[in-house]
């Protein structure tokens, strides 16, 4: 297979931010507006359930089994609303990022669209989630059976194997999104042919990107906390500086709440660029260096 630079891919998100400041600014604005609307709808329709669930979770003694059942019942409507919303946001984000990297000249609407490309990204995300759930669920069943017969050590090994398996699948399938966007069709298991023999290079690039994302996030949070503490003279106020009050619409729609949402939108876009850019960058390098062989049939 063609070669790629793992180090260049790991830092590709920073390069994209530097070279596309206007686009990144539009993404932050859009993410902020969409998040405000989604949070407002969540508070309006599910605010009472969220408050009840939060009170159960903050119980010093911990929720009882009956309370856990009640918590699940209370949170089900919220999950049924947030899951489709998160999938749509993820689909639009992945498609926009792939469009920015693979088709840089196609910059209409700041690369943001809602169409077949986005729908295919949602399908790939769902397939990935289902596969990982199947692996974890299967391993949990095996662990339960082994625990019933006293196989403690084997249970631990199975759980460790499940974690390793999940990481392995995530890395080997990491180019499925980029390939799906490039080919205009669902590509899932076929993407493993492209990542064959490159597991450790891919893993290294993704780990470095994840570490850099955490470092950037911590630095920005420390700066904001310090600034709030200096301005207000109250270190306890700094703890709430980045957390919007979602107890009611009235408390949510305040100047500080809007600023907090703007910060959240900024961090969401920056984290997405740092974390998600390596995969499409690597795929683009592979395609330009050598067309990967793949079977025509199947996913």
TrEMBL record:
Keywords: Membrane, Transmembrane, Transmembrane helix. The keyword Cell membrane does not apply. The chain crosses the membrane at residues 24-47, 83-101, 122-147, 153-171, 199-232, 252-276. This is Glycerophosphoryl diester phosphodiesterase membrane domain-containing protein. The lineage of its organism: Bacteria, Pseudomonadati, Pseudomonadota, Alphaproteobacteria, Caulobacterales.
């Amino acid at each position: 297979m063609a070669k790629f630079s793992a180090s260049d891919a790991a830092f590709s998100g920073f390069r994209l931010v530097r070279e596309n400041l206007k686009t990144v600014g539009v993404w932050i604005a859009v993410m902020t507006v969409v998040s405000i609307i989604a949070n407002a709808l969540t508070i309006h329709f599910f605010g009472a359930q969220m408050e009840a669930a939060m009170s159960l979770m903050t119980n010093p003694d911990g929720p009882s089994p009956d309370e856990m059942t009640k918590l699940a019942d209370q949170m089900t409507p919220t999950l049924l609303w947030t899951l489709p919303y998160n999938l749509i946001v993820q689909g639009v984000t992945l498609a926009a990022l792939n469009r920015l990297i693979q088709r840089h000249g196609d910059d209409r609407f700041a690369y943001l669209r809602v169409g077949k490309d986005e729908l295919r990204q949602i399908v790939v995300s769902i397939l990935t989630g289902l596969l990982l759930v199947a692996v974890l669920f299967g391993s949990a069943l095996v662990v339960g059976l082994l625990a019933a017969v006293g196989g403690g050590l084997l249970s631990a090994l199975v759980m460790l194997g499940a974690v390793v398996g999940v990481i392995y699948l995530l890395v080997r399938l990491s180019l499925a999104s980029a390939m799906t966007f490039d080919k205009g069709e669902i590509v899932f298991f076929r993407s493993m042919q492209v990542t064959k023999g490159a597991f450790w290079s891919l893993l290294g690039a993704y780990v470095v990107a994840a570490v850099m994302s955490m470092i950037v996030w911590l630095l920005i949070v420390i700066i904001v906390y310090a600034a709030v503490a200096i301005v207000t003279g109250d270190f306890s106020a700094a703890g709430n500086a980045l957390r919007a009050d979602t107890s009611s619409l009235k408390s949510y729609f305040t100047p500080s709440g809007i600023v907090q949402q703007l910060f959240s939108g900024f961090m969401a876009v920056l984290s997405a660029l740092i974390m998600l850019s390596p995969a499409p960058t690597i795929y683009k390098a592979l395609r330009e260096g050598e067309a990967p062989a793949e079977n025509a049939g199947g996913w």
